Amino acid sequence: MQFTINRSEFIKAMNHVSRAISSRTSMPILTGVKLELDETGLTLTGSNTDISIETKIPFSDDQAKLEQTQPGALVLPASFFANIVKRLPGETFTLTNNDGLQAKITSESAEFDINGQDAQSYPHLPEIEVTNHLILPAATLTEVISQTVIAVSKQLSQPILTGVHFIIAGGNLTAVATDRHRLAQRTVTFGESDVNADIIIPGPSLTQLQAMLDDVETVDVRVAENQVIFQLGENTVFYSRLLEGNYPDASRLIPTEKRTTLTINARDLLQTIERAALLSHEGRSNVIQFMVSDSRSTISSNSPEVGRVEEEIFAAQTSGDELTISFNPDYMREALKSFGDEEIQIGFKTPLDPFTLVPTNNETNFIQLITPVRTY
């Protein structure tokens, strides 16, 4: 194998596939990146068994300036190889592999020899039968992921909750995540469609996918039996395994009754929460209190080890019963960030029931739910 390529364009492709490569794996070959050169272009592949990413640099890419001398394939140590390419002196570099397992990398006066592994030993990407596929704007998918993935569980003892539940039916996509302390749900309408799917995608997979969506306009989502595939533009494919099992019915967790409501700008409330959290984080319980009434509403935190903070908040509207509720400020902070600068309504039932946060227009069919902390 031998080719010459623009260094910066190669680094972009390498950054994509590196998201699927882990230094900690039971298969040593998966710490490497697979390079395969054929008559259509250069394909880079990375995998960690949970996700696999394949990106292609075609000969038709004018910016990449890919020139082929000899086709072939080789697996090179990903981190070491990437660091070398980033530090090469020239705008282009040449990689040569003459049938053995060693690659020579040259750029201007620099020359490196790297030991590789046989590409035949690299696991093949799954060949799967696609049962459903759906095209979504990348910006919409980015928003859905950022609004829901914050609520996935970090506890591996509940593996099903470490993913986001995607339900596609009747022209709607609903994404739900919960760790049993909070819940995030977002519904997107994409028009008439006969696509139906009920899948659970691991949260870490979605986090890596989200970071790759800025460079594309649309995403082709394809669902198979135990895999989901995201086609990003023409040249990059993202594979993720699916979690097996039945996701709990999250709709039962959402209260239908509100006895107290408060309408406020999400960003203004977020800043107040962050100030109160400075003190709560220093204490043992990491809890803050929210007192809501028609006359005066406050956020406060009392830590015997450190001190006390109280700040009045100025809501656009308050109605219903007076209420004091305690909660984890980190959950509240992440929920508020997902709304940006929107005006939201917070709905309470009792101090011990979960409360909800929704945009006042709720045109996006978006809801965050937080379970309060019992302090007595």
From TrEMBL:
Its main location: cytoplasm. Residues 1-126 form the DNA polymerase III beta sliding clamp N-terminal domain. It is found in: Cytoplasm. The keyword Nucleotidyltransferase applies. GO terms for biological process: DNA strand elongation involved in DNA replication. GO terms for molecular function: 3'-5' exonuclease activity; DNA binding; DNA-directed DNA polymerase activity. InterPro entries: DNA_clamp_sf, DNA_polIII_beta, DNA_polIII_beta_C, DNA_polIII_beta_cen, DNA_polIII_beta_N. SMART domains: POL3Bc. Residues 252-373 form the DNA polymerase III beta sliding clamp C-terminal domain. Forms a ring-shaped head-to-tail homodimer around DNA. NCBIfam families: dnan (TIGR00663). Confers DNA tethering and processivity to DNA polymerases and other proteins. Acts as a clamp, forming a ring around DNA (a reaction catalyzed by the clamp-loading complex) which diffuses in an ATP-independent manner freely and bidirectionally along dsDNA. Initially characterized for its ability to contact the catalytic subunit of DNA polymerase III (Pol III), a complex, multichain enzyme responsible for most of the replicative synthesis in bacteria; Pol III exhibits 3'-5' exonuclease proofreading activity. This is Beta sliding clamp.
